[in-house]
Amino acid sequence: MKAVGICGSDVHFLKAMRLADFIVKEPMVLGHECAGIIEEVGSGVSTLVPGDRVALEPGISCWRCNLCIEGRYNLCPEMKFFATPPVHGSLANQVVHPADLCFKLPENVSLEEGAMCEPLSVGVHACRRANIGPETNVLIMGAGPIGLVTMLAARAFGTPRIVIVDVDDHRLSVAKNLGADETVKVSTNVQVSLIQIII
Fold first, then answer.
1. Which pLDDT band, with edges at 50, 70 and 90, does 18 fall under?
2. What domains lie within the chain, and their CATH numbers?
3. What region holds the Alcohol dehydrogenase-like N-terminal domain (predicted)?
4. What predicted TM-score, i.e. pTM, was given to this entire model?
5. What is the distance between the alpha carbons of residues 118 and 108, in angstroms, rounded to a whole number?
6. Which of 91, 148, 149, 199 is in Cβ range 3.0-4.6 Å of 31 for a Cys bridge?
């Protein structure tokens, strides 16, 4: 592994030793936003060679259930996901991972950028699910990392107007610098904040 992002879920595991129903019961390696360089491939692998720079998709599905067969493998109930107990994460020197979940990076994409493919995929998925396009205005609730990559994805999908909302001035400043058309700081008076967004 050459680059691993620190996700909010990693921070949550470090602070609380759990995330929803996933509880850390023994030492665990964190990290799932990752990219690296192939060192070795199995005998049946023809798509990758040692030296290839790759981004890794961190979830391994069963490929047998109806959801996997229908192409909705991200919902597989047997999913084994990096850094989700009891599965170790990618914040390590090496990991063993299926070749079909390792994606070659173009030469103009750094390993650090490759590690951001996973969070970016969350934003792309959100835009696809919401049918974002040139006639769609977008409101994003939260200017954290996922909100920001969703904003970038929405812009790439052609949306003409993006409003992003947060409670933190610094995050809103970053959002503005990255291309938000409007930023709104949410106050404790949610009704006033919502009126400000709508108008």
1. confident
2. 3-115 (3.90.180.10), 120-198 (3.40.50.720)
3. 1-107
4. 0.86
5. 18
6. 91
